[in-house]
Design a protein that fits this description.
The complex is a heterotrimer.
Chain A lengths: L13 H11 L11 H12 L4 H10 L4 H10 L11 E6 L2 H5 L2 H12 L12 E6 L11 E3 L4 E3 L4 H17 L9
Parallel strand pairs in A: 1-2
Antiparallel strand pairs in A: 1-3, 3-4
Chain B lengths: L6 E5 L2 E5 L5 H8 L25 E6 L12 E2 L10 E3 L4 H16 L15 H9 L22 E3 L9 H9 L6 E3 L6 E3 L13 H5 L5 E3 L12 E6 L8 E7 L2 E7 L13 H6 L7 E5 L20 H5 L1 H6 L1 H10 L2
Chain C lengths: L17 H6 L4 H9 L2 H11 L11 H6 L10 E6 L8 H8 L1 H15 L3 E6 L4 H16 L15 E6 L9 H8 L23 E5 H13 L1 H6 L1 E2 L2 E2 L1 E8 L5 E6 L4 H6 L13 E5 L7 E3 H5 L11 H5 L2 H4 L7 E6 L4 H15 L5 H18 L5 H14 L7 H25 L1 H7 L15
Parallel strand pairs in C: 1-2, 1-4, 2-3, 7-11
Antiparallel strand pairs in C: 5-6, 7-8, 9-10, 9-11
Helix pairs in contact in C: 2-6, 2-9, 3-6, 5-6, 6-9, 15-16, 15-18, 16-17, 16-18, 17-18, 18-19
Classes of the chains: A alpha+beta, B alpha+beta, C alpha/beta.
Cofactor (chain A): [2Fe-2S] cluster
Keywords (chain A): 2Fe-2S, Iron, Iron-sulfur, Metal-binding
Family (chain A): Belongs to the complex I 24 kDa subunit family.
Chain lengths: 182, 338, 450
Amino acid sequence: MLSVKQNEPLEFTEEMLGKFAEIVTRYPEGRQKSALLPILHEVQANYGWLSVPAMDRVAAYLQLEAIEVYEVATFYTMYFLQPQGKYALEVCRTGPCCLVGAERIMKHIEERLGVKEGEVTSDGLFSWRGVECLAACGYGPVLQIGPEYTFYENLTEAGVDKLIDELKEKASANGQSPIANG
Amino acid sequence: MAEDVRFKVSIDGIPVDVAPGTTILNAARLIGGDVVPPAMCYYSKLEGSGGKCRTCLVKVSKGSEKDPRPMPKLVASCRTTVMDGMEVQSITSAEVLEARKGVVEMLLINHPLDCPICDQAGECHLQDLSYEHGLADTRYEFERRTFDKIDIGDKIQLHMTRCILCYRCVFVADQLTPQRVHGILGRGDAAEISTYIAKAVDNEFSGNMIDVCPVGALTDKTFRFKNRVWFTKPVEAHRDCPTCSGKVTLWYKGEDVLRVTARKDTYGEAEAFICNTCRFENKATSDWIIEGPRVVKRTSVISSNHYEQLNPPPVVKKNLTLQAANKEQFERIERLLP
Amino acid sequence: MARKLLLTHIDVPGIHTFEVYRQKGGYRAVEKALKTLTPEEVVEEVKKSGLRGRGGAGFPTGMKWSFLAKPEGVPRYLVCNADESEPGTFKDRYLMTHIPHALIEGMIVSSYALGANTSYIYVRGEMMPQIRILERAIAEAKNAGLLGKNILGTGYDLEVYVQPGGGAYICGEETALLESLEGKRGNPRIKPPFPAVSGLYNCPTVVNNVESIAATVPIINDGGEEYAKIGIERSTGTKLISAGGNLNKPGVYEIELGLPVEEFIYSDAYCGGIANGKRLKAVVAGGSSVPILPANLILKTLKGEPRLMTYESLADGGFQSGTMLGSGGFIAYDEDQCIVRNTWNFTRFYHHESCGQCSPCREGTGWMEKVLHKIEHGHGSFSDIDLLVDVAKKIEGNTICPLGDAAAWPVASAIRHFRDEFEWHVTNGQEAQARNYGLAHYADPLEPVI
């Protein structure tokens, strides 16, 4: 069970609420629960993960019990229930990608970032994990980075190094401080 | 469809007439006895339950009078409705028995088998199921699944390792209580009953989660480690309750009521759900109007302490001296036999 | 060169935009269907075409459509299954990325045929870029009056929405997909009732794969009979094949059904042979769920006939010596690949993706994964191999949805055809652990013919 550290009440921005309202119009009257998955994606895109207050707020917005949101958020693997690195690298680890070297790529990422699967680097910039088939088996090995889910294909060790360097550069150019761990 | 239309169905060759819309399982229950498939997740009083545990799989060897083709796969009898002329095999199909054995094995591989310290022992459906359909041995050699312990309040004890994910408690919370605060979280074999954040499951009907749980995953915290069920004596009683039917079973040890449960039918289902006031707040004999002792099957483990002893041990039967010495006692046992 | 119906204009620059797509004859099928055909006539054309579901099950699409219940005053829904996640399959991603309007056009035609006024495209959440592409395509089509109220002045109204998934393979199962679209956990529903009677929001619903829906466009344009002329027997039309694994030219190919497997693998028009000059050892022909076949059996049937890319030919020999066309996820293994490791990997996938609702799948997939892990890492015993066969048998056919079968078949077939590779892992534990590849003697000994 989760020990709740982040219990401050949370308010969504006007922009987010506008987006939510548009999403709800896609479904028939009274079927607003259908908006749950897309709204959770929006929330994650804004905060980097799904905290309990954020999920409670979504529940209130969609007139659901909080447990209904937790049930859904814990079922689907795209939703992060813990803070991640600013760039969460997700490498496909299923059969066809492994035929062309996905396991090697994951090992390389682990060594390069110096953190194990699921952990966040000390600067808060990166986390990584293996994920199941990303439906790009002809272009493997592949990885994706949310929240845009930018896709990188035909990965090599050198390519991964280059990508990590670019992301580091991008982060420092934006002058963004790494996101705080909650 | 006219109300008097009845479907003729046979289960293991035994014919039965049922109303259209009846499930195979309920048709079998009308026949009763050994042909009734075991059901770990179906609960007739909970809408939407069933289909999940797969212990009630049966073979439909003839689909219907109109379309006599057999169904290609075994079907969950609790969620498959009968057709006129349907022929079903339950215990007469080797395939069904094999599948049931498989399901029992699956349910047990990650079960902690901690019956010696489990309050459900003696009235556990998984115990019964394993006894009837299981293997004596396990082929599973890996570490069994565990979960972080969570506290769901002062009335219900949750042991997630024992859970078979029947979803009955979720249906209870949905259908009987005003607000559901627990649910199934996670996915696959990591799925668990949880509230996600620390929250007590507590409302006027939450105690029914204990009664519907087929295993020891949800037990009565007020009864916890108080006694083994077979040392307690079930007595039927009722009270004038403004919330529920007030018809319960009191479980006595000596003069004390150790716990209160709903009355269970042959299939272990509550005859009527009861409220938490009846279940947790009224544990004095004076709170109740006693109807009499609950009828318990002689084969039940619960009956074992309510007769002086079972049949004389085999050694006695062969020994004339002992027989003569215990003559009076044996006669008393004979009289007690139903 | 073989005929193409879906990817005809794939190389035209800008084909992903409405303008170019329209210039190349796009949305003619909408005009034809809405202006000259009744919905029943559209269904009839699809029936005549012999089109079979392209998502994997191969159920005739026209027949599925004709099962749709049509009670008065109840809305009907078309839901497009774009939750492509079967390992080995990436054709829908390709189609949606490069020719999104082919799907939108198919959605309009199909929705019209079914009498749906609201339709959803359920795209797996990881495909956010494709979701954005589709949303833009929908906006473009709406702008051109091909979506929304009174389409092309015919009085037919249709809204199409894109719904993201959340990361769950099981949502490719149609009832799990509907649950997910309703904002719930992706637990497959217990059938009956089938979606055709009670689907999305308890209304009659048809769920079709991306490729099936896109295929209705050439079917309406050229007529069902014309479409049925392509292919062999009950395998009509063209099919997108996702080719991956150890091939010289992996990628998505549109083939005419009936193409010999050998030609598909070795011809330069398609995969161009096995990569790095190696030999072919095995093929999974229809996505990870279908039985794996060794090189000799994928190239020729047991009767010695050339194996063809059709539903029937790939299934020839049943599960003893055949497999399935499935979703067309074609994975080739070269001589150095380890079948045990691959089976373990696939089983881990199914274990990870099991929804956990029914006991044989929830418990059995994890059990198989653990046993396979043990064998792959050199700690297995011979009895473990038999145990795997038995556990697979206990799962198969006894679950709520086909994921149980999909998890059982790869294990059963790998042991059926590559048993001595499993046994080699038992007898040579240390070596198996050290080298991570399997036995080469299964590889095709023949020189490629083409």
